[in-house]
Amino acid sequence: MSYAEQTTVTAEKSRGEIERILQKYGADQFMYGWDKDRALLQFRAENRYVKFELVMPDRHDREFTHTPSRNTPRSDEQAQKAWEQATRQKWRALALVIKAKLEAVESGITEFEAEFLAHVVLPDGLTVGEWITPQVQMAYDSGEMPKMLGM
């Protein structure tokens, strides 16, 4: 069972909670936006821009259009409700992740950079994770270390 799989907290309330969490832990900028299949949340804290991209569930996925037990078609209303539930779950999980990371930093368990490194935005708009992931794969494939950032 996934975290918050049965949550009744709306996506809007979760986004508001994330914004309040960020303010509590010292973020000084926050933005949110979306398009048809993803949501983007970005903030600035500790002089770093941090970006989370949340891939949203596809409304037309069989997971929502058909029942899980008998694989029978759902009504449009039932499919919409199932999709909304999955969307609420994603936002609750993101709120949990952000709060846990910031609390770990606040408690001295870890450092901000270590906790958010994959999501830190580089000058070209990519996150560290987007930039390094292909290089890690190349390193494994070739057995050679990638060049340093900016070299």
Largest sheet: 3 strands, antiparallel
The total beta strand count reads 3
Percent of residues in helices: 40-55%
Q: What would the principal axes of the Cα set say about the shape?
A: globular
Descriptive labels:
single chain, 151 residues, alpha+beta, 3-stranded antiparallel sheet, 3 strands
Q: What's this model, at a glance?
A:
The protein has 151 residues and is of the alpha+beta class. Helices cover 46% and strands 15% of the residues.
Describe the protein in words.
It is a single chain. The protein has 151 residues and is α+β, with helices and mostly antiparallel strands. The chain has two domains: 11-120, no CATH class; 123-151, no CATH class. It contains five helices and three strands; from the N terminus they run αβββαααα. A three-stranded antiparallel sheet has the order 1-2-3, with helices on one face. A hairpin with a 2-residue loop joins strand 2 and strand 3. Helix 1 runs parallel beside helix 3. The termini are far apart. 15% of the residues are buried. The mean pLDDT is 93.
List the helices and strands and how they pair.
Elements: H1 11-24, E1 29-35, E2 38-45, E3 48-55, H2 62-65, H3 76-106, H4 112-116, H5 128-142
Antiparallel strand pairs: 1-2, 2-3
Helix pairs in contact: 1-3
